[in-house]
Amino acid sequence: MNPSSSDPATDALIDEIRDRVAERRRSGFYPEGLEEELDSHFQRIVTHRRAVDAERLRDSLQELDARSRFSRRRIPTESKVAGGAVAHKAVGLVTARQTSGVLEQVQGFADGVRATLRLIADALDSPYEHLHSDLLAQLDAVWERLAIWERGPVDSAAAVGDLRRRVEALEAAEQNRRFSPTWSADAFEARFRGTGDDLKERYRDLAERVAGYAPVLDVGCGRGEFIELLAGYGAAARGVEIDPALAEDGRRRGLDVATGDGVRHLAAQPDGSLGAVVLLQVAEHLMPQQVIDLVATALEKVREGGLLLIETVNPQSLYTFAHAFYLDPTHTNPIHPAYLEFVVRQSGWPQVAIEWRSPPAAHELLEAEPEDSAVAAANIDRLNRLLFGPQDYALVAFK
Amino acid sequence: MAIHQVLVSASRGDAVTGFALEIRALLRPLVGSEIFARHIDIGLSAEVYALNRYEREVPPGDVLIYHASIGDPDVSAFLQGRRERLVVVYHNISPAESFAPYEPEFAARLEAGRQELVRLRDRAELTLAVSEFNAADLAAIGFTNVKVSPLIIDPSSLRGEPADDDARRHLDAHVRGPLALYVGQLLPHKRPELLVEALHAVVTYLIPEAHLVLLGPKRLPEFAAAVQRQIVELGLGTAWITGAVTRAELRAYYERADVFVTASDHEGFCVPLIEAMSFDVPVLARGTSAIPETLGGAGLVLDPKDGPLVMGEAWATIVTDAGVRRRLVDGGRRRLAEFDPDAARRQLLENLGEVM
Question: What is the ipTM of this complex?
Answer without folding.
Answer: 0.90
